[in-house]
Every structure is written in structure tokens, then in C-alpha cells.
Design a protein that fits this description.
The structure holds two protein chains of two kinds. By secondary structure, chain A is mostly beta strands. Chain A has no helices and twelve strands. Chain B has no helices and eleven strands. In chain B, strands 2, 4, 5, 6, 9, 10 and 11 form a seven-stranded mixed beta sheet that branches. In chain B, strand 4 and strand 5 form a beta hairpin. Chain B starts with a strand and ends with a strand. The chains are: A mainly beta, B mainly beta.
Chain lengths: ~120, ~110
């Protein structure tokens, strides 16, 4: 079974609008970490936001917020007020102790912001 | 604080050759992980080193090997290159190797095997 599932290969959003990128995960661990990364066409992976499994509040970092629904095992990324520079690939990832805290990445979602 | 650096940034090799890629983590970071990224397979975990010891290994053949030095710098070696080894190789570092530790990535090395 896939540890991380991102079901949206591509998404389009109008500039200044909000967009939600979906991520579901699979783990039996009680403690785990969830991460989102952005990869522009240059190739470098840029860390966006982190959510711990025991964090009761949804994580926020500027225009990024993580909609964490533990019972549904989902960790969706919300980008508010989209900008042209947000066009990139977005990857959801997880670390879990039972597999040595190895990072597992999803297949990514390509986001295109339309002016 | 300087980020993760990787050298070289671009590399062209021919089948059968070997290649060594280098990664310098963020100062103070002791964990270094390597990933292979291809359009077909996505991001695949190669291995992780912490304090000079390999902690985790992905599902890659023995042609892929790595090591970490006492200053936390890491090298990855691929022997007997195959066309399918053409990929973006990403290195990432974190302070420790715990579940809440964020990994910070370098710019990657683009390897083309002809």
C-alpha cells in the first residue's frame, strides 16, 4: 500500500484565489510527522510546512496552512491568495518511527497559477 | 546559514562508468539522505546516514552506495552506470533523524547517462 497518496496530478488556480492540494497517508504509528514541499522547475525541493501527529492545531506558515484531519488520515495543503510564483510541483511526505523515520513522498501535484 | 550544497550540479557519463556525487549538509546537521527522482518513478529514497552510519536503505541495487564522513559530508557512488540511472539526485539534511525533523534539500545533481 502507498504510504502517501496524492490524487491530483494537476491543478489550476486563478491568481489571488485559494487552492487545496489533497494528501492522504497510511500509517499504524501513533506518532508521525507530515510535511509539504514545493519543487519549482529548477528542481530544488523547498520545505513549506510541518504537522506533527499530536499537534492539535492545524499548522500555518504565511499563506500556507495544513488542514489536518487525523481520523481521515488526510493532510491537505491550502494555499491562500495564489501567486504566479506558486506554480510548481507540490509533494506531501511523511516520517514514521516504525520504518526508521524514513521519508515517504507522494507522487506530487503540479499546480499552475493562471493570471 | 548556508543551505545544503551538492556538487557537481550537472554530469554526463556513459554506460559502464562510475560516478561520485557529493553533498554538504547544513552546518550542525548530522543526518543526510539521498533520493533519486525520475519522471517515471518519482522520488525514491536511496539511503540515510546519521553520524557516519547508514540508518536506512531503499530498494536499490548494490551499485548504489554511499558514505558519510565525520564532518557529516556525504558522498554517493553509482558504479557500472546504466541508462536508467539518468535522474535528478537530491540530497537532504536534518539535525537529527527523528520523526519531527524537517529535511532540507540541496539543489540536486542532474545525471545524464549516454
Amino acid at each position: 500500500a502507498q504510504k502517501i497518496t496524492q490524487t491530483q496530478p494537476g491543478m489550476f488556480v486563478q491568481e489571488k484565489e485559494a487552492v487545496t492540494l489533497d494528501c492522504t497517508y497510511d500509517t499504524s504509528d501513533q506518532s508521525y510527522g507530515l510535511f509539504w514541499y514545493k519543487q519549482p522547475s529548477s528542481g530544488e525541493m523547498i520545505f513549506l510546512i510541518y504537522q506533527g501527529s499530536y499537534d492539535e492545531q492545524n499548522a500555518t506558515e504565511g499563506r500556507y496552512s495544513l488542514n489536518f484531519q487525523k481520523a481521515r488520515k488526510s493532510a491537505n495543503l491550502v494555499i491562500s491568495a495564489s501567486q504566479l510564483g506558486d506554480s510548481a510541483m507540490y509533494f506531501c511526505a511523511m516520517r514514521e518511527p516504525s520504518t526508521g523515520n524514513q521519508f515517504y513522498f507522494g507522487t506530487g501535484t503540479s499546480l499552475t497559477v493562471i493570471p | 546559514k548556508a543551505g545544503v550544497t551538492q556538487t557537481p550540479r550537472y554530469l554526463i557519463k556513459t554506460r559502464g562508468q562510475q560516478v561520485t556525487l557529493s553533498c554538504s549538509p547544513i552546518s550542525g546537521h548530522r543526518s543526510v539522505s539521498w533520493y533519486q527522482q525520475t519522471p517515471g518513478q518519482g522520488l525514491q529514497f536511496l539511503f540515510e546516514y546519521f553520524s557516519e552510519t547508514q540508518r536506512n536503505k531503499g530498494n536499490f541495487p548494490g551499485r548504489f552506495s554511499g558514505r558519510q564522513f565525520s564532518n557529516s559530508r556525504s558522498e554517493m557512488n553509482v558504479s557500472t552506470l546504466e541508462l536508467g540511472d539518468s535522474a535528478l539526485y537530491l540530497c537532504a539534511s536534518s539535525k537529527l533523524a527523528g520523526g519531527s525533523e524537517t529535511q532540507y534539500f540541496g539543489p540536486g545533481t542532474r545525471l545524464l547517462v549516454l
